[in-house]
TrEMBL record, chains A, B:
Species: Actinosynnema mirum (strain ATCC 29888 / DSM 43827 / JCM 3225 / NBRC 14064 / NCIMB 13271 / NRRL B-12336 / IMRU 3971 / 101)
Family: Belongs to the ROK (NagC/XylR) family.
Matching Gene3D superfamilies: 3.30.420.40, Winged helix-like DNA-binding domain superfamily/Winged helix DNA-binding domain
Protein name in UniProt: ROK family protein
PROSITE patterns reported for this sequence: ROK
Database matches in InterPro entries: ArsR-like_HTH (IPR011991), ATPase_NBD (IPR043129), ROK (IPR000600), ROK_cs (IPR049874), WH-like_DNA-bd_sf (IPR036388), WH_DNA-bd_sf (IPR036390)
Length: 389, 389
């Protein structure tokens, strides 16, 4: 007997990405006969993945019935950051229904941090009850996606090869996918943000550190050891600030949340920035956000920090654009809050440095989902896991 | 009725990549029943793509028959360079049976150069007669693979959007695939060279110019406009030599065949290199090859040029390795003739600069096929074209 020609994961992905569809539309999109589709929908209904959603708008002829992902489907989405943890519950379409965030130092190690994740997950599940079928987790370091473990993550002492996926899968009794946080952000932006439906894009995250999510042909490219996208340690100049990695002159040591905070304190103390000096006196420390606020308020020295940082980031982005010729560059992470002056600087450098063929139709834009990119992407990765079954 | 479960292009690719296989082995590798395989082999035999090749070695039980690509299959493989054209004839397994090379300035434009290609092809076909089923062409600039045309190629005046594929297909009466020359070299090295069967690799060509072929998941990544791999114009320093692209400080302006020739003349005239000075006096000009010869003979200044160039190339390769985490970096093109001192310098920089996770198992090696990489890759691309039908 012929195997059923219905591509199940494509069917589920259509319902996730486009929402409820009539049986007729589904059949046309999948190019399968009515009977085969009905049989497959029956099976998916039995396992609780899809359901009927009322009559579809008539297109003349027989009225079709809407099919949608089951309304009670839930996925857990976790974003572990350097200094915080966010846990969200999303529906099958990766729309976030509830989320909670807590301060959390990733250096506390996996036992403490995962306990926190499990506790937050229990809380957030109460806020949006339903049937949890999968979970996705983003971690701030290189991850072996296949094994579901962090691999030699520089800022995560104690996490190396810790079985994050298997431990959470055992706790939650559902499949879990673990990925690098920047990959998750790239996928989130592609699912529901500014890069919707694009096949080839770079998501450059500038937060405490700097990293890049690479989406090629609609899939995350992770490299042979899960280390792809590690652009924070591309060296810009031989003589430069010392980096957390032990090197000097890395992009991240020049421009990142941490570097901006350091330079802001330097400026404040030098007397060249009255606004930053006031902030430092008031709060005892400064962050990238303070630099943005001071720059927007017309502080010349703070604006200079943003410009210099944007230029350096632009140098690296220009190289990546020459190298990969992507369809879009999205800039996200905390420092993207510096907004349009940062963007203008990056765009200027890229368009000056890369060849016109690569920059001609290249949008360089800010993340649309902001804080939420990571959890939306983690939810998306979780659904992929379930839908592939 | 069920469609035949035999994946035809996979079957043909197996015979190309592994050589003759018994029917039994083929059936096992493709996971298809004997009857379906026989039917498909019958069809492929009728169109002259496969044939029987005598009895297979016995594994006990019924003796199986060897199946192979038809011995009379031929593909044309063309490598258009900046200053030469090579045309080869290969068999279905992409083994080069005959080749001819002629000096040829790509700036003569497409009409002149393609006429030359057609003339050389006629000659080389006589050297290795058979049935030409496809042709592959590598061009020294960005190519729209889909459209079979060069796109805004910097060193190819008059070629922009010239219908190379369609013109040659009309002349030869067979399908033609046109690609960037560096992509072809990467595929050649992957099919039959040092990167055999690797899924993820970078092929860095340093010839007159500098470019990079990117193979990810076993396929060439071309970027959204066919411009991926354009690393020659990544800028290393603000103040640097003027580049052919109009910018300053590009990798290619620092280190390439053209840059080495320029610097060699400078050294010769400065009196700092007796060997290069002698060569200049004798021949009126110098090339990258002269630098290599002088360096090997112990000329200190020439060796310095190789070291500096290797360091600069290493800086760019280190960035690419951090970014993509490939499984191998192959260095090819004319300047790879500088050999192991170049390689040592590149390796040193990459291992110092990229994170251990990305460099731990990373071979950085010289091209094995040398001059032949481009035509082997063009032949491979041609077979893909036929086998996909």
């Amino acid at each position: 007997m012929a195997p059923t020609p219905v591509n199940r994961s494509r069917l589920l992905a259509l319902l996730r990405d486009e929402g409820p569809l009539s049986r007729v539309a589904l059949g046309e999109r999948l190019g399968v006969p009515r009977a085969a589709l009905s049989a497959e929908l029956g099976r998916l209904g039995e396992v609780g993945l899809v359901e009927e959603g009322g009559p579809a708008a008539s297109r003349g002829g027989r009225r079709s019935v809407l099919v949608r992902l089951a309304a009670e489907l839930r996925v857990l989405a976790v974003a572990v950051g350097a200094t915080s943890v966010t846990v969200a519950v999303a529906d099958g379409r990766c729309e976030v229904l509830a989320r909670v965030t807590e301060e959390s130092d990733v250096r506390d190690g996996p036992v403490v941090v995962l306990e926190r994740v499990v506790r937050l997950a229990a809380r957030v599940r109460e806020l949006a009850p339903g049937r949890v079928v999968a979970a996705g987790v983003g971690l701030p370091g290189p991850v072996s996606f296949r094994d579901g473990v962090p691999v030699a993550p520089p800022i995560m002492p104690g996490w190396d090869r810790y079985p994050v996926r298997d431990e959470l899968a055992a706790r939650w009794g559902c499949p879990v996918a673990v990925d690098n946080d920047v990959n998750a952000m790239a996928l989130g932006e592609r699912h529901a943000g500014v890069a919707r439906s694009l096949e080839d894009l770079l998501f450059v995250k500038v937060g405490t550190g700097v990293g890049c999510g690479i989406v090629l042909g609609g899939r995350v490219y992770r490299g042979v050891a899960g280390a792809a996208g590690d652009i924070g340690h591309i060296r810009l100049e031989e003589d430069g600030p010392v980096c957390a990695c032990g090197g000097t002159g890395c992009l991240e040591a020049w421009f990142s949340g941490a570097a901006l905070a350091r330079d802001a304190v330097g400026l404040a103390r030098s007397g060249r920035s009255p606004l930053l000096a006031a902030g430092l006196a008031e709060r005892g420390g400064l962050t990238a956000r303070d630099v943005g606020v001071a720059a927007s308020a017309g502080d010349y020295a703070a604006a200079g920090l943003v410009r210099d940082g944007g230029r350096r980031l632009g140098q690296v982005v220009a190289s990546l654009v020459s190298f990969l010729n992507p369809g879009m560059v999205v800039i996200g992470g905390g420092v993207s809050g510096l907004g349009h002056s940062l963007l203008a600087e990056v765009r200027g450098v890229v368009h000056r440095r890369s060849l016109p063929l690569a920059t001609g139709n290249l949008p360089i834009v800010l993340s649309e989902l902001g804080d939420e990119a990571g959890v939306v992407g983690a939810a998306w990765t979780a659904t992929e896991r379930v839908f592939a079954v």
